[in-house]
Amino acid sequence: AVIKLNAALILLTVCRNLLTWMRSIGRNWDRLRIPVDLNLTFHKIIAGVIFASAIGHIVSHFVNFHALSRATVAELQVLPRNVPDSPPSIAYSAFATIPGITGWIMLIVLITMFSFAHKRVRKTHFERFFYTHWLFSIFIVVLCFHAVGGKLEAPSAVYWVAGPILIYVAEKLTRFRRGKRKIQIVAAIQHPGKVMELRLEKPNGFDYHPGQYLFLRCKAVSRSEWHPFSFTSAPEEDFVSVHINELGNWTHTLHKRLNHENKIGRITVPPTIKIRYDGPFGSSAEEVFKYDVLFLIGASIGITP
Fold first, then answer.
1. What is the rounded CA–CA span in Å between residue 58 and residue 52?
2. What is the pLDDT of residue 150?
3. C-beta separation of 246 from 194 below 8 A
4. pLDDT given at position 302
5. Torsions phi, psi of 223, nearest 5?
6. What does the pLDDT read at residue 67?
7. Which of 131, 139, 150, 164 could form a disulfide with 11 if both were Cys (CB 3.0 to 4.6 A apart)?
8. At what angle do helices 136-145 and 98-116 cross, to 10 degrees?
9. What is the distance between the alpha carbons of residues 84 and 65, in angstroms, rounded to a whole number?
């Protein structure tokens, strides 16, 4: 039940439209112990709980496999489901049954995702983190079939994850539809320190608040990668600006495509460079105007959710 519950919750932590809506209705979510402003931290905690629970689950299964292999035919009759005719071997239970096979698949998926989710990998090879994280879809599907043929309980994971899956799919469909929108680069300015300012046209009806952010995709850099950037322009201005620091492969390639000569100042944007956007999305920085006193810390570029 621990794995099923957390598999359902982990999907909700990355539904940005849902989180933005929750912020917009003005509820004090902190008092309700719902970490709306710490969704990514909560996401990582849940992932850790799933991994630790999976290891405990595997150890418990091998204890049961050992007990089953030594049980008598009469003792096997106490099993609530799928009673075998003879005591199964440990190898058979672990590698030749649906729970065993699906369990190893989920473990491999978890190890792969955890390996490429390390902070160093995310910063230097984001695409590896991005693509391996899509393995979660395999994990969720396999989880729903994990208990098929099991001897203790009927499959129930689908009832835990069905609701969050529908919300997550609706989220992705919404973002896919909005992600088709193109936006024109009005100006590009190269600042010292490998920081480039992009000024983008402001679409009609595009309203955002200070502290929010948006996702950008540049087809000339990557067909599938979306990266978040905080708004650095004021909402009342007639353009939208972001400041992009050269940190990883995606930002490095974007800098080279826009400014291969490394000039400082305003640069000419090649006509082949097209930008698509999705947003705006809310963040905890939206709350700044609710307080009389603010304590500001300059954290540099790279802290956008």
1. 10
2. 66
3. yes
4. 59
5. -75, -20
6. 83
7. 164
8. 160
9. 13
Report pLDDT for 113. 93
- Which pLDDT score, from 0 to 100, does residue 138 have? 93
Per-residue pLDDT at 273:
83
Closest CA to 7 of 99, 143, 125: 143
According to the model, what pLDDT value does residue 286 have?
67
* Residue reference for tokens 């729903």: 144
Query: 3-class secondary structure for the chain?
Result: CHHHHHHHHHHHCCCHHHHHHHHHCCCCCCCCCCCHHHHHHHHHHHHHHHHHHHHHHHHHHHHHHHHHHCCCHHHHCCCCCCCCCCCCCHHHHHHCCHHHHHHHHHHHHHHHHHHHCCHHHHHHCHHHHHHHHCCHHHHHHHHHHCCCCCCCCCCCHHHHHHHHHHHHHHHHHHHHHHCCCEECEEEEEEECCCEEEEEEECCCCCCCCCCCEEEEEECCCCCCCCEEEECCCCCCCCEEEEEEECCCHHHHHHHHHHCCCCCCEEECCCCCCCEEEEEEECCHHHHHHHCCCCCCCCCCCCCCC
Joined together, the tokens standing for residue 108 give 């491999």
The rounded average pLDDT for each run of 10 residues, N- to C-terminus, in the chain (305 residues) is: 89 85 71 74 92 92 85 72 75 87 93 89 80 91 84 79 92 82 85 88 84 86 84 88 84 86 85 83 72 77 59
